[in-house]
């Protein structure tokens, strides 16, 4: 592994909604092996950037180079196939399926009419169970997903993303809406996965969480990257402090 090799290189990414420039000539990189943060005030374009990366929304312009390949202009399945991971927001649990089935089902594509119980092979079940063990949800494997708490759902969603084994894991607010103990655990799991070589790009509002976990951190303001640096550099940057105080 070459240090600081960019796994993801975004250049000039732009998306207008009518007259509003939600993402405006935005550029940043995600070094391979990093836990990269994407922060910014409300409305600065973070969610739109994630949607542009997964092609949930098509960009107006800009290039996306992932693992040495141009992915801009390609459909979502091609990006997922290349190893550009899905986000918490795109991954959704099927309430009537069990926890285990949900983790297995993420690898398949279905229409809503096909939902119900699915056949799970022994190999799939073993892989899913290992991931449920990792996120601490193995004991819930046979429970229907709708019976889970919000925090438990987030853990299962993390297992779903890992089942796809993406090269880059996109996490949209992994610490959002969960209790402090689980936030702590979420951070530990991300760090552990990173120590095995997994690269992360994380959008998160919880500043202590981001500052303790992410490096580098990219700060968005009005759809553009206004600062990039280590947690220390970001915290000391007057323009960053300004952008947040002005929020
Ligand atoms: P963040 O995630 O940083 O809070 P967003 O990416 O959600 O920011 O939004 C950036 C800007 O784009 C906001 O002004 C928001 O209102 C606008 N926006 C986002 N999605 C749409 C959409 N589908 N249609 C119109 N405007 C949108």
From TrEMBL:
<feature type="domain" description="ABC transporter">
    <location>
        <begin position="8"/>
        <end position="247"/>
    </location>
</feature>
<protein>
    <submittedName>
        <fullName>Branched-chain amino acid ABC transporter ATP-binding protein/permease</fullName>
    </submittedName>
</protein>
């Amino acid at each position: 592994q070459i240090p600081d090799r960019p796994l993801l290189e975004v250049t000039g990414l732009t998306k207008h909604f009518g007259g509003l420039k939600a993402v405006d000539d935005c550029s940043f990189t995600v070094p391979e092996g990093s836990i990269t943060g994407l922060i910014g005030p409300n409305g600065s374009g973070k969610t739109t950037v994630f949607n542009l990366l997964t092609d949930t929304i098509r960009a107006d312009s800009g290039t996306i180079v992932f693992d040495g390949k141009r992915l801009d202009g390609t459909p979502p399945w091609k990006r997922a196939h290349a190893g550009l991971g899905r986000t918490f927001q795109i991954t959704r649990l099927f309430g009537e399926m069990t926890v285990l089935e949900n983790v297995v089902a993420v690898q398949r594509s279905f229409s809503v009419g096909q939902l119900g119980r699915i056949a799970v092979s022994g190999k799939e079940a073993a892989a899913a169970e290992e991931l449920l063990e990792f996120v601490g949800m193995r004991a819930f494997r046979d429970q229907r997903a709708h019976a889970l708490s919000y925090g438990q759902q987030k853990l299962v969603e993390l297992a779903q993303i890992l089942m796809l084994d993406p090269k880059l894991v996109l996490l949209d607010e992994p610490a959002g809406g969960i209790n402090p103990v689980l936030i702590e655990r979420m951070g530990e799991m991300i760090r552990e996965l990173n120590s095995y070589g997994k690269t992360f790009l994380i959008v998160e509002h919880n500043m202590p969480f981001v500052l303790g976990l992410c490096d580098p951190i990219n700060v968005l303001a009005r759809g553009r990257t206004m600062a990039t640096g280590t947690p220390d550099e970001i915290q000391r940057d007057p323009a960053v402090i300004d952008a947040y105080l002005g929020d």
